[in-house]
Amino acid sequence: MNKILFTGGGSAGHVSVNVALIPEFKKNGYQISYIGSKKGIEKEMIEKISGVEYHEISSGKLRRYFSWENFIDPFKVLKGIIDSIFILKKEKPEFVFSKGGFVSVPVCLAARILKIPVVLHESDLTPGLANKINIKFSNHIFTTFEDTLKYLPKDKASLIGAIVRDDIYNGDKEAGYKFCNFNSEKPVILVMGGSLGSKILNDYIWNNIEELTKKYQIVHLVGKNLLNKDIKAEGYCQYEFLAQELFDVFQIVDFTISRAGANALYEYLALEKPAILVPLGTNQSRGDQIENARFFEKNSFAKVVSEEEFASLKVSEIDDFYNDLAQYKDAMKRYKEEKKVINSVDDFYKKILKIVGGKM
User: How far apart are CA 71 and CA 213, in angstroms?
Assistant: First the structure.
């Protein structure tokens, strides 16, 4: 049986494309294994997929602040490389597919040592640190944004566009209303702070819940272990994270208030859901969400509000955004028709196999 090994983690954005691709490879007869961290969100997401063997490695972490753990992490990475070599020798995959995140670095380096082909995917406008390292060990890297290509070697980089899960189009509106206990009388806002949650977004919604629910119904994804049991309001529901239920919920959503991870943004574009974006600041990231958000604002898909400004955002400004939704939706529809940036999982599967010479 043909084998493929996936890697990537640290955030849902570094796993979601893998989650979309795995069923396609399984459908075509591939045996799937996965290397991730011991406690990352990738473990939780991948273990929900039947028939995928999950391997844990030590990988360290990229921190943009002083920590004594920064001195220990190089040894964790070294152990992760050794662990990955043993796993790859056992699994004997035809190739490795990496979505990025720091856990992927030991895996890609180990694959290079063992002369196993490596294919990467970069969602953000500029490559993340893990992919900047991994590109040296890879055979090819696919990008979501065309502008990303200028940062990469021309001989092994190509545009694939956004890979959107097929299931995202198959949600049921009635099921969405029932799941949230909402009705069709008020517009619905989806608030997404990313898989790890966002204190800034959460605090804003909770501090303004009474005024917001006068006009809107709110589905609030707060992040792991961040549910606030003290907040109760008619037309408001909160969850740590949604999996399959999100497809139904998307069908009732009018617009989103969200962080600006590339995978989520392209799902909004695919479904024509305009967004108020609050990108992660440079004190917590390399600024990739700011770049993603600016791209979406420049193309009239979203309104960008900085973290510093968001806490004082007036509800009337959200009302103004809602009143302009038709313009944002028109811009999204035109862009999709002209640029053809939303790609199918099946097409990506075929392009990956063309690169590595695998069997379809």
Answer: 48
Distance separating alpha carbons of residues 195 and 77, to the nearest angstrom:
24
pLDDT tens digit string along 51-82? 999 999 987 665 454 555 555 667 778 899 99
Query: d(Cα 29, Cα 3) in Å, to the nearest integer?
Result: 9
Averaged pLDDT, 91-100: 96
DSSP-derived pairing of the beta strands 217-221 and 236-239: parallel
Q: Which residues are annotated as a binding site?
A: 11-13, 165, 195, 289
List the structure tokens of 281: 């600041």
pTM: 0.84
Percent of the chain's residues with pLDDT above 90: 71
Report how far Cα 262 is from the mean position of its chain's Cα atoms.
6
Integer Cα distance of 312 and 280 in angstroms: 17
Mark residue 83 as left, alpha or beta (left: phi above 0; alpha: psi -120 to 50; beta: remaining).
Answer: alpha
Q: Which residues are annotated as a binding site for UDP-N-acetyl-alpha-D-glucosamine?
A: 11-13, 165, 195, 289
Residue 154, H or E segment: none
How far apart CA 325 and CA 147 sit, in angstroms, is 27
Reported as a single tens digit per residue, the pLDDT across 96-136 is 999 988 899 999 999 999 999 999 999 888 898 889 999 99
SS3 197: coil
Q: Burial level of 53, CB count in 10 A (0-12/13-18/19+)?
A: middle
**CB 4 within 8 Å of CB 25:** yes
